[in-house]
C-alpha cells in the first residue's frame, strides 16, 4: 500500500466541501502537519526537505516570528485608523532597505492585493488605462490582476493590455548576443506602447518581474529592465516592480531583485516572504507619487492589513534577515548549488538547461538537447519520485517540463547535498 493512500479519504472530503477549483501538488498529495526550518512532516511522521516553498522565507515556524506574533496577538490587533508604534516602525524599517526614494508603504494582505493597488495608483496618477505585461507571467487573482496574468487568464487579452516577450534566453533570443537581445526587446516594448496609444488607452504602467517565473524562470540581462523603464516613462507610464517572489534577498545580490539591473522602479510590490507564512504584503512607492495619488482623489484603507500583529511579524522577519546575513548566505549557497547542478546536468543529458538566480532555479528537461523538445514525462516522474523519497520540488512551464527549485532562504550546504543526491538518484532511473 502506498504511504500516501491514507490521504485519499481527506482528499475526497476536501473535494466535496472546497470544490473542484482547488488543485494540489503531486499525484498522491502530501498531508503536511508540521514545519521547522527547511523541513516539513506529514501526518504519518515522514520528514521532507522543502526545496520549493519561498513563503517560509526565514524557515518554517521560525521561533522569533512565532513569538512576535504570539506576543502582539495577546495584546491588541486592530487597524490603521488608530495609531500604533509597530506599524510605523515596520514602515520605517522597510524604507531603510527599499531602493531610491521609495519610502511610503501601504499595507495589504496578499501579493494579489499589492499588485491590484499598484495598478490603481498608476491609473489615477497617470490618467492612463493601459498596461504592459509579459507573456506567461502571473501577478495575482483579483479581477484586475487576473487579466494582467497571462499564465492563468482564460479569456482573450483585453484591449487595454499589451503583452511582450519575456527574456527567454533558452528558446528565445540568447543572452550571448547582447546587441540582438537588446534590439529585439526594445522593439517589443516600443510596439506595445504604440499599440496602447493608438487604442486610446495610453500607458498607465508596465509590470516587471526581476525573475520571470511563469514563463520559465529567466533572470534578465540589465539592459532588459533598463530599456523598459526608460521607454515606459517616456510614454508617461509608471514602472511597477513585482517583487512578491524575487524580493527579500532571494536572488542573492540585493534585497530586491530589480536592483540587479541598476534601476529604481516607481512602485514596488511585496508579498510571500515578508511574513514568513503570515499573510503580509506591501505596496510601496515614492512620497511624490503617493501625494499625486491622493491629490487626484485616491484613498486607501484595509480592515485587516497594517494591523499590529502583522507589523510585529514583518519586523521580526527583517531583523532575522539582517542579523543572520541571509543575503550573503543565499549568495554562497546559490553559487555552490548552481555549480553542482550544472555538473549534474553534464552527467544527465535530459537536463537541457539550468538557469535562474540565487535560490530561484529552473532545470529544464528535454528529450533532445539539439532540438530542445520538452520532456514533461521525465520531469514529472523525477518530481514524484523525489517526493516519495523525502524531497519536495515542483514543476512548471507551458509544457510542464521545468523542475522548479525555490527553497527557504535558510537552505544551506547540507540541504544542497541531499537535494542533489536525491535528484541524481531520480535521474539515474531514466
Automatic annotation (TrEMBL):
PANTHER family, per the entry: ALANINE--GLYOXYLATE AMINOTRANSFERASE 2-LIKE, PTHR45688
A GO term for molecular function: transaminase activity
Protein name (Swiss-Prot/TrEMBL): Aspartate aminotransferase family protein
Organism: Sulfitobacter alexandrii
Annotated family: Belongs to the class-III pyridoxal-phosphate-dependent aminotransferase family.
SUPFAM superfamilies: PLP-dependent transferases
Keywords associated with the record: Pyridoxal phosphate
Cofactors that this protein relies on: pyridoxal 5'-phosphate
Amino acid at each position: 500500500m502506498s504511504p500516501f493512500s491514507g490521504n485519499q479519504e481527506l482528499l475526497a472530503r476536501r473535494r466535496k466541501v472546497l470544490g473542484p477549483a482547488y488543485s494540489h501538488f503531486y499525484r498522491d498529495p502530501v498531508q503536511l502537519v508540521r514545519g521547522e526550518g527547511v523541513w516539513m512532516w506529514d501526518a504519518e511522521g515522514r520528514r521532507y526537505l522543502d526545496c520549493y516553498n519561498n513563503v517560509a522565507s526565514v524557515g518554517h515556524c521560525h521561533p522569533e516570528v512565532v513569538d512576535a506574533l504570539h506576543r502582539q496577538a495577546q495584546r491588541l490587533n486592530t487597524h490603521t485608523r488608530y495609531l500604533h508604534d509597530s506599524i510605523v516602525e515596520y514602515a520605517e524599517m522597510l524604507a531603510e532597505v527599499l531602493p531610491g526614494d521609495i519610502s511610503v508603504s501601504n499595507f495589504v494582505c496578499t501579493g494579489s492585493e499589492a499588485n491590484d493597488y499598484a495598478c490603481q495608483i498608476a491609473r489615477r496618477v497617470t490618467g492612463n488605462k493601459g498596461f504592459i505585461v509579459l507573456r506567461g507571467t502571473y501577478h495575482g487573482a483579483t479581477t484586475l490582476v487576473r487579466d494582467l496574468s497571462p499564465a492563468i487568464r482564460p479569456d482573450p487579452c483585453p484591449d487595454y493590455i499589451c503583452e511582450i516577450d519575456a527574456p527567454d534566453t533558452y528558446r528565445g533570443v540568447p543572452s550571448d548576443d547582447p546587441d540582438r537581445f537588446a534590439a529585439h526587446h526594445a522593439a517589443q516594448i516600443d510596439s506595445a506602447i504604440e499599440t496602447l496609444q493608438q487604442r486610446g488607452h495610453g500607458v498607465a504602467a508596465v509590470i516587471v518581474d526581476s525573475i520571470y517565473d511563469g514563463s520559465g524562470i529567466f533572470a534578465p540581462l540589465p539592459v532588459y529592465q533598463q530599456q523598459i523603464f526608460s521607454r515606459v516613462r517616456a510614454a508617461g507610464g509608471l514602472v511597477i516592480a513585482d517583487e512578491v517572489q524575487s524580493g527579500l534577498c532571494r536572488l542573492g545580490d540585493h534585497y530586491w531583485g530589480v536592483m540587479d539591473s541598476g534601476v529604481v522602479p516607481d512602485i514596488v510590490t511585496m508579498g510571500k516572504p515578508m511574513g514568513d507564512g503570515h499573510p503580509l504584503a506591501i505596496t510601496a512607492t515614492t512620497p511624490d507619487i503617493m501625494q499625486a495619488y491622493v491629490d487626484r482623489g485616491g484613498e486607501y484603507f484595509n480592515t485587516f492589513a497594517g494591523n499590529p500583529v502583522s507589523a510585529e511579524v514583518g519586523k521580526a522577519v527583517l531583523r532575522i534577515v539582517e542579523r543572520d546575513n541571509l543575503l550573503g548566505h543565499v549568495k554562497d549557497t546559490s553559487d555552490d548549488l548552481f555549480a553542482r547542478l550544472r555538473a549534474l546536468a553534464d552527467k544527465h543529458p535530459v537536463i537541457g538547461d539550468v538557469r535562474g538566480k540565487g535560490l530561484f532555479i529552473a532545470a529544464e528537461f528535454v528529450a533532445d538537447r539539439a532540438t530542445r523538445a520538452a520532456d514533461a514525462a521525465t520531469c514529472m516522474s523525477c518530481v514524484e519520485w523525489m517526493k516519495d523519497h523525502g524531497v519536495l520540488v515542483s514543476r512548471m512551464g507551458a509544457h510542464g517540463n521545468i523542475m522548479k527549485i525555490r527553497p527557504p532562504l535558510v537552505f544551506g550546504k547540507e540541504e544542497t547535498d541531499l537535494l542533489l543526491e536525491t535528484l541524481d538518484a531520480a535521474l539515474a532511473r531514466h
